[in-house]
Amino acid sequence: RGIVPENHPRRDSILVRERLVEAMEEDVVVPQGLIAQGRGECFDYLIGEQTRDFAKKAIRYAALLLVKARNPVISVNGNVAALVPREVVELSKAIPAKLEVNLFYRDEKRERAIAKVLREAGAQEVLGVGENASETIQELFSERRRVSKEGIFSADVVLVALEDGDRTEALTKMGKKVIAIDLNPLSRTSMKATVTITDNIIRAIPALKNEVINVKKMREEEIMEIVQNYDNKDTLREAMKYISRRLDQLSLDL
Ligand code: PTJ
């Protein structure tokens, strides 16, 4: 594919785009996934393309929920499979959690392509493909309603990324805890999730795996402190205020 100069200031970002375009050609990502990435990039600019304190706090609480869960499930869509296949499999093993393919633009060919990507990245079992998605989330009208019985349907904690607000809302209504990774703190997903990680999945998934390992070593008192002090509205407020302050500062620096 096109040569990206080694010293190009936006080289990393361009390479990520190339990865998504290639994944689209392999039926993993949908064209709409490229648009979603573009929106994400914009918000990543606003937070300075780093995992900020508000995201770190959310990641820690999310790690705790995942480790303490009875049946944690990581929901994988096209963009996740294209951007962080190995990292998401490593995270699932560290917890341990199940991996389930669940697509907005559902199509069995894509489901199989995504499951293949995950298996090649080291996954032993991938739920949600074809007949395995035998259960229905009644509250949902998109194709995301079809889920695996032993996966999302019976999960108590679900990790979602690059999501539409409807499913997050439906899952929380079913009594599940939803951890969302979404660069846009204003999205409906961000507002409706139990825990919102305002960060790029490329940074957030490896950071979450590290926190899972840390949380497992924590004493019960430390865990209780995190649980008692976490408030997702505060986290979202911090993200929004951070962006606003940063823009203020940048305007003064001109
Ligand atoms: O693979 P499918 O069929 O399930 O389709 C996946 C897409 C992403 C096309 C579908 O879920 C969709 O249309 O999503 P939205 O409604 O565009 O929402 C995507 C959200 O993810 C937006 O709020 C973006 O800001 C955010 N986002 C985009 N790229 C990243 C991101 N968040 C974290 N990391 C990213 N790299």
Automatic annotation (TrEMBL):
Pfam families registered for this protein in UniProt: PPS_PS
Pathway: Cofactor biosynthesis; coenzyme A biosynthesis
Official protein name in the record: 4-phosphopantoate--beta-alanine ligase
Catalyzed reactions: (R)-4-phosphopantoate + beta-alanine + ATP = (R)-4'-phosphopantothenate + AMP + diphosphate + H(+)
Record keywords, A-Z: ATP-binding, Coenzyme A biosynthesis, Ligase, Nucleotide-binding
GO MF entries: acid-amino acid ligase activity; ATP binding
Residues binding ATP: R17, R39, D182, L183, N184, R188, T189, N200, I201
GO annotation terms (biological process): coenzyme A biosynthetic process
Family, as annotated: Belongs to the archaeal phosphopantothenate synthetase family.
Keyword presence, Ligase: yes
Known EC number: 6.3.2.36
Provenance organism: Metallosphaera cuprina (strain Ar-4)
Function: Catalyzes the condensation of (R)-4-phosphopantoate and beta-alanine to 4'-phosphopantothenate in the CoA biosynthesis pathway.
Lineage of the species this protein comes from: Archaea, Thermoproteota, Thermoprotei, Sulfolobales, Sulfolobaceae
Record keyword Transmembrane helix present: no
Superkingdom of this protein's organism: Archaea
Subunit-structure text: Homodimer.
Name of the top EC class for this enzyme: ligase
